């Protein structure tokens, strides 16, 4: 009977050890699964947060690019207007110079005619004053004498 008890005790001890190892192994697997789940959840949460941040940054970046593009368009438009005004002013100045040149040539030709006529004695003008450019008017600065 004592031998049976020793065998039973040894069997129970072996069986309990086997059961304990199974429980420990199961607990280790459960813990590992939980740690994997927790890590995966944290990764998923971090990934979602990164996606939100990236989305917000892209919106911000696109907004800034649109703003820069609009600013560049405004600058270009103003520059084109400036250039057009500048070209218009240059053309106007060139036209004014041509007109002035034409008027001066005509005035000079008229003076020459009058001076030529005075030297022939056909006019009662003072020759010295006919050649002076004191007032620059259309009457060429001639003074008519009484006699």
Q: Care to give the gist of this entry?
A:
The chain has 147 residues and is an all-alpha fold. The chain has two helices and no strands.
What does this structure look like?
There is one protein chain. The protein contains two helices and no strands. It has 147 residues and is an all-alpha fold. It is rod-shaped.
Q: Summarize the biggest pleated sheet.
A: none
Query: How does the helix and strand content classify structurally?
Result: mainly alpha
Radius of gyration: 55 Å
Fraction in helix: over 70%
Low-confidence stretches: 127-132, 134-147
Average predicted confidence as pLDDT: 85
Number of helices: 2
Overall body shape: rod-shaped
Please report the total strand number as a whole number: 0
Range of strand content: under 5%
Helices and strands, in N-to-C order?
HH
Chain oligomer state: single chain
**Cα separation of the termini:** 178 Å
Topology:
Blueprint: H1 2-119, H2 127-130
Sum up the structure in keywords.
single chain, 147 residues, mainly alpha, 2 helices, 0% strand, rod-shaped, disordered C terminus
